[in-house]
Design brief:
The protein is of the alpha+beta class and about 160 residues long. The chain has one domain. Helix content is about 30%, strand content about 20%. It has five helices and five strands. The protein has a five-stranded mixed β-sheet with strand order 1-2-3-5-4. A hairpin with a 3-residue loop joins strand 1 and strand 2. The longest helix is centred in the C-terminal third of the chain and has 15 residues. The chain is globular, with a radius of gyration of 19 Å. InterPro entries: ABHD18.
Length: about 160
């Protein structure tokens, strides 16, 4: 089925372009497809990241309603497929939002927030999703900065 005229017009009107220069070298794409076989199996996936994987906490801000930690770590993809991820995206950045006090010491719910397309930095997810969840349900948050966005955006990328 050919694309509709509406789809064609919409695509021409978009300001941002995705993957204009392709998805990378054929060799890297092949490596990604091979690695997919490993990460799609639970038994092998669990063994990819050690329990003591190094994570650096760079900031710990305390507020009246919560604590917000910021940190970074090397993307595990860079360890398993060196060179596939651009240099700027190799270091993953995140925020963790924790309540001042957990309602139950044995039950500490956390929600992982991944960014949607065009969602740079943490502000939107932190203020519109994570903080209301924290206030209403005492659920903490881990907010990850996506590769190619915000702090992980390569300099040459528009």
């Amino acid at each position: 089925m050919p694309p509709s005229k509406l789809d064609s017009i919409y695509r021409r009107m978009l300001i941002t372009r995705f993957f204009e220069k392709g998805w990378g070298t054929p060799e890297n794409l092949q490596r990604l497809f091979e690695f997919r076989k490993i990460i799609s199996r639970r038994e092998t996936c669990y063994k990819l990241i050690p329990q003591d994987y190094p994570v650096e906490i760079t900031r710990n801000n305390k507020y009246s309603d919560c604590s917000i930690l910021e940190g970074k770590f090397i993307s595990p993809l860079e360890l398993h497929l060196p060179g596939v991820v651009p240099k700027a995206a190799q270091e993953a950045h995140f925020q963790v939002i924790l309540p001042k006090k957990w309602r139950e010491e044995k039950f500490k719910p956390m929600c992982i927030h991944l960014a949607g397309t065009g969602d740079h930095f943490y502000w939107r997810r932190r203020n519109f999703i994570a903080k209301p969840l924290l206030k209403d349900a005492n659920i903490g948050a881990i907010i990850l900065e996506n590769p190619f966005y915000g702090l992980r955006k390569p300099d040459h990328q528009v």
